[in-house]
Amino acid sequence: MNPRSRRTSFASLLLLALLVPILAACGGSTPQTTATTAAPTTAASAATTAPAAEATAAPTEASAATEAPAATEASAATEAPAATEAATEAPAATEASAGGGDVSPAGNILRVNFGTEPDTIDPQKASFVNEIEFIMLNYLPLMTFNTDLKPVPGAAESFQESADGLTFTFKLRPNMKYSDGEPLTAKNFEYGWKRLCDPNTAGDYASIAYAVVGCQDYFEAFSTGGLTTTDEAKLQALRDKVGVKALDDNTFEIKLLEPAPYFLNVAALWVGAPTRQDLVESGGDNWWSDPANYIGNGPFQLKEWEHQSRVRFERNDNYALESNKPKFEAIEAAMINDSTVSFEAYKSGELDIAGIAPEDLATVDADPELKAQKFEGPGSCTFYLGFSVKVPPFDKKEVRQAFSMAIDRDAYIRDVLKGAGLKTLSFIPKGYPGYDPNEKRLDFDPAGAKKLLQTAGVDLSKEIKLTYSSSPRNKTRYEYFAAMLQNNLGVKITLDPVDPTVYTSLFKEGATTPPMFILGWCADYPDPQDWLSLVFHTDGVTAGRVGWSNKDFDALVEKADKLKLDDPERPKLYEQAQQLLVAEAPVAFMYNDVTRSLFKPWVKGMKLTPLDYFPGIFSLSTIEIVTQ
Q: Which domains are assigned to the chain?
């Protein structure tokens, strides 16, 4: 299997709080700030900011990566430390409701901020958080998650796994309907899954289904199969071989190439949402942009969309999952990509939920009313500095290593994030299976970083571009970050601000990946396969974009992916893979997120998990909006 992917979390609020796009997790946004951020503590006074460049077109070349110090060659770092007990448990749901007896001024409606306009909300194409929250409000996949983050039946009423682990058979809930009243059958799921594997769809998450018989061959028909759109008969033959099939109206079967014990998690993701063939084919490439076309089977239905301004979802009376039916009538979502404006909207009573940007934390803590409405919880995301590994100077291992060692993570978390982050030198966050508490390589060492650059023979007179999602607050943050790199490495960094929507689109294709950037990855589900195999396997969501490939890493995760979840060898293989990943350093891991958000006291009963596509989406039935 050759996976590649993205993901989500309670990241819909994180977008505005941390201002870094999040894959599959990922979506982008960028709030405003005044220049109050302290300069890096190691920076020289002569260079406190990097030059702010005008927004430019994305570079045409792709690749990105970071590497480990010369002293830790990949071959010397294949053994991982033993797994800790704490790393085997998924994060638990947390009550987020604030106290108080206030009444919602908007009635039985939840008002939120979606931030940046999504690039797409096509279920078979999407890969960023701000895309996926639309999808998962509007659609219900075969499976879903409970608040313990376990996969449970969604549109399926039940499922069976064959003894050899190669066939999953799903029984659908009887008499299901789309939000417009049209019948929903297993044929709709067959269409959605085959569309995911369709090379014409070219979805970011197709490789998550490469375990399905025939999916990879079909999806790669153009890239490696030598076919073109005119080879209709051959394409149809490949489509017919994809191992998904409606056995009857209420029975849907998925056949796998090899055992994939994690696959029920995949069946809970947006990628297999039952998109309607008639609406997709009649609506053109952007069929999803018109609410009249965006008909699903989820808890809500998209009713109004004033692009770049506001969105309205209304409760879907045909929603089949009785145990999680929402009590509130609608969701009103603003589209504000400036956290200053979002914060003011919350304070004035226009929003019921808002993320807390680091710059606003002191204001919140100084106000007794706001402080009583503050919620802090664990996140599910890892943020990293990425490099195009095929583009000089990042085609040299020592350069990527040096940039990682030039990052003072503690200072960045303290000065810029105001504590809303946890330092990390590896990929999988604390609390998730596969977390490595012993990784210490590539930590802050400016002297060692400069030596590595000298070893690499880098021409320090050439400017290096750092591309970011543009906003006033991001400008200040990236000036801080660029100054840190300049001062600690002696290089010249040019800032390249890009429109937030354009920024996320740069990472849809490897050819447009910028030379240097910051992105985040959040968990789709609590399993190392979702982090290591999907993201850094050759052609994985990040590996493919940055141009990184390692056969030893691929072999380790491929072997682990096939083992049963309780096989003691499985975590050891993933740990070895993560050790190798750090040693090769295709990116420089920086920090894990910490969720800080505000909830109005009239929002009751919301249980949050780090995987929430939308706040409280796995506990919709318990959420109440106090109206009287």
A: 20-42+51-73+387-594 (3.10.105.10), 96-117+300-315+324-377+595-625 (3.40.190.10), 129-289 (3.90.76.10)
